[in-house]
Amino acid sequence: MTERVTGEDLSRDHAGLTETFEARRYFRKFETITGHLARVAAVMEDEGALTRLDVKVLGGYVGRIAGTFRALSLKYLMTGRDVGAFFGSVAIDRTDSGFPVFRELLTMANDAQQAERHLAGMMSAEALRDEMVRQIVGDLAIPTKLQFSMSQRLYYEALERGGLFWAQNDPEARWLGDMGPDRRKYLLHWAVYDSQVNLPTIYLMEIEDSGGRGLPVDDRRWPEAQAHLMAQSLAGLKLLTIAQGFDRDFDDLHPKRLRRFHVGPMYSAGYTLQTGPIHDVLEEARAPEGQDWALAWTEERLDSDRVEMEKSGWFGRVEREIFALDPFAGRGVETGATATQRSIIMPARPYQVLAEKRPPGFREVRKFVVSRSGQVVSYR
């Protein structure tokens, strides 16, 4: 956790959704948005911006994000109902991301470790349903407490099934091919829920491995590489810093491309306190429920430009990557990346307002517009 998560900051930046239908609409909105992301990725694949493997890997993380939101929606299904003084409400970051705060994912990870014990101490789903019917028919009462128990059981069942996006999602390796008898190529991918910005962040790194054993089966290098990458997965670090650190710490692992995908922020007039052009667009659109949102999607990319040999020890020499930085107006030094592509995904009605207003900050932002039928069309 960082200093920004203090009592004072929480009161200003973070808000608990305390009303039943407000919380349910929030989770339903994210269910809709995550459903559209797969179609956006398919459009990017058709245009050559992503490979099929990229789409598969990113789609896996988007699926996990959707699973996490479904689990949280079950946990907070009875928000605003009389289910006990100690039951809270989901806290969201109103100003920076529109997503749940980092603390929610930490709590969920702790709950997952104890899910089996919780489920063992609960009534079965069938027994809960039978008891609810008895209260409704026999006592002519709304079984609020039993509904809460059911929601918590479903929440723990979702945690036990897994497949969720956690605060840390450790690196995995995919073999891309052999480049010679002693050189292999891998795609490493991992993800975090960044505590500084309360956003899911996904990393993809293409490397060449000149070690004696393949990286994923190397009991010495693979755990060390995983720990190194997770420790460097901070939004405040430039890609250049991450790649150069990895290159220098592992003489036989050569990072050729590093990409970072920021999923969000999510903007919605009903839930976030956005300012500037996006605020004006959503306010003027006055879109109906389910159409009043916009989601940012940012890709940073760092490519290796060439390799130089560097002396190592008395007689050894090792490869060192020289990375290409954005050549335009010196931005590469500032961003630490070869290129940055910003995109925004939104329904048709807010996009119509955006197209009419044409605010300067959005001219180079890629637009993906979702129709009511779910079709996605891209605009430059």
Mind explaining what this structure looks like?
The chain is of the alpha+beta class and 380 residues long. The protein has 12 helices and 11 strands. The strands form 2 sheets. Strands 3, 4, 5, 6, 7, 8, 9, 10 and 11 form a 9-stranded mixed β-sheet that branches. Strands 1-2 form a two-stranded antiparallel sheet. α3 (52-75) packs antiparallel against α7. It starts with 6 loop residues before the first helix and ends with a strand.
Low-confidence regions: 1-12
Strand proportion, as a percent range, falls in: 25-35%
**Radius of gyration over C-alpha positions, nearest whole angstrom:** 24 Å
Distinct helical segment count: 12
Helix/sheet category: alpha+beta
Distance between the termini: 38 Å
Question: What general outline do the C-alpha atoms trace?
Answer: globular
N-to-C order of helices and strands = HEHHEHHHHEEEHHEHEEHEHEE
* pLDDT averaged over residues: 88
What is shown here, in short?
The protein has 12 helices and 11 strands.
List keywords for this structure.
alpha+beta, 380 residues, single chain, 11 strands, disordered N terminus
